[in-house]
From TrEMBL, chains A, B:
Miscellaneous comment: The reaction proceeds by a bi uni uni bi ping pong mechanism.
Native organism taxonomy: Bacteria, Bacillati, Bacillota, Negativicutes, Selenomonadales
Native source species: Sporomusa malonica
Protein name: Pantothenate synthetase
Keywords: ATP-binding, Cytoplasm, Ligase, Nucleotide-binding, Pantothenate biosynthesis
Subunit: Homodimer.
Pathway in which the depicted protein is active: Cofactor biosynthesis; (R)-pantothenate biosynthesis; (R)-pantothenate from (R)-pantoate and beta-alanine: step 1/1
Function summary: Catalyzes the condensation of pantoate with beta-alanine in an ATP-dependent reaction via a pantoyl-adenylate intermediate.
Length: 286, 286
């Protein structure tokens, strides 16, 4: 695996790859790699000749009260894991390489996709995401880019951006990877104490609870959300940011669950904000 | 010359061109082609194997009170002129091809580059320009893109966008083309009556006046602007939008002219808003 800190170096590597007609996969990450990231990398390695993984803690997607300064960083370990997962080029630029002097350009998706769910509690977050991902898309010009279903709203926003701006890139979405006990993998899990780690199981368990309720016939959005909310509130350490059942396409609520809905959660466990989600499907036969 | 209305058709043509290792030049226009556009196209033809010209009256760069509906359109004549100027592919998409259903993504340069000069009197204009040009850049993925110095602020904004977002595209800026009597070529000149056409000469003449003043030793920004303003006001049909002497890099005013400044004008002649500009250079020897 080769490592690059500058756009120029990475580009000359990629120009060579393109000359050899090699396909290029991109896995954008903020580092602190876990099995979720590695699953993206392995998928990318299976589908492309070259896999570029970026490790860049992007300042523009953090709010002023958020955890930019403390976000876990461990480049040496990340590099070892990435190489094992099939990454051929690691791009680890300093902030001033991606946001150069005089930088003033933003890419923004407006409307329900960025105003709902995490958009409400993290204003500006998705503007930071689309701004950095559009830069990475242009730097790497990959054939395919890989994102995790865990960040489902990010996926929907980036799909919209890719389509609207005509990026000639295929977005590939990889399923959530969970610990054995159900906790969705996240770099922020590292913040949790043992007690909090146990309490955090309430997220995935509440999604299972929702599936049971729907299987039992409930179709009313408010009723499903209320049941999930009550379930989570039984955990003393949990403070709900949102529990919402929305349509997967526009991330807006409907009165009734039809065909398939997206149940998305953001819950604070102590100081750590965690997210999780699942699709709720109405059985074809009832 | 081949003509395309859809992104898909144009892309399959361009994929073939790239397979043959042909270089691609892009000339984005809103049609109503004049010698200024044709100069861009001829330059592009001299520097590239393939020249794509787009003709697209972009609704997002017009304000609600502006001339979107009446903007001159003449595709048949434009196509003939473009072919003669060396264009190999004409891209003439309907609005709903560039802004598809569900479109919600904007590209925006913020700060002095878009807030000064035309940014003040045309809020949202440059956001529309960067949004459509980023789409065209991704659709065509040219090696070089051509813009006219007449739209000097647009040039500076697009240079910023290209650099910030790492578009792998060389921006080429082509000098202003003028009528024999000095009037800068513009599609909007078609709006002028004979009397207005004569009055419109005040723009280019005032730029010549400014050059004389600077040659005579004036360096004070306010004094140069005041002299140009007074000169324009002698023309009864002229209503000044702005007269500003700014630094070419950030488009912000300085107290004194040093080395080189950009003198930019927007003036209404009747209902028609015209722009013009020139660089003012301080002589190396005095």
């Amino acid at each position: 695996m080769q490592c690059f800190e500058t756009v120029e170096q990475l580009r000359s590597y990629l120009t060579e790859a393109r000359r050899r007609q090699q396909s290029i996969g991109l896995v954008p990450t903020m580092g602190a790699l876990h099995e979720g990231h590695l699953s993206l990398m392995r998928t990318a390695a299976a589908e492309n000749d070259i896999v570029v993984a970026s490790i860049f803690v992007n300042p523009t997607q953090f709010g002023p009260q958020e955890d930019l300064a403390t976000y876990p960083r461990n480049l040496e370990k990340d590099a070892r894991l990435a190489a094992q997962a099939g990454v051929t080029a690691l791009f680890h630029p300093p902030v001033e390489e991606v946001y150069r002097s005089g930088n003033a350009t933003w890419v923004e998706v407006v409307g329900s996709l960025t105003e709902s769910l995490c958009g409400r509690s993290r204003p500006g977050h998705f503007r930071g995401v689309t701004t950095v991902v559009s830069r990475l898309f242009n730097i790497v010009q990959p054939d395919r880019a890989y994102f995790g279903q865990k960040d489902v709203q990010q996926v929907q926003v980036l799909k919209r951006m890719t389509q609207d701006l005509f990026f000639d890139i295929q977005l590939r979405v990889v399923p959530i990877v969970r610990e054995n006990d159900g906790l969705a993998m996240s770099s922020r899990n590292a913040y949790l104490s043992d007690t909090e780690r146990q309490a955090a199981l309430i997220l995935s368990r509440s999604l299972e609870e929702a599936k049971r309720i729907v299987k039992d016939g409930e179709r009313d959005t408010a009723a499903i959300e209320a049941a999930v909310t009550a379930f989570i509130q039984k955990e003393e350490l949990a403070v709900i940011d949102y529990v919402e059942l929305v349509h997967p396409d526009d991330l807006m609520r409907r009165e009734q669950l039809e065909a398939v809905g997206l149940l998305a959660l953001a819950v604070r466990i102590g100081k750590t904000r965690l997210i999780d989600n699942t699709f709720l499907e109405v059985p074809a036969c009832s």
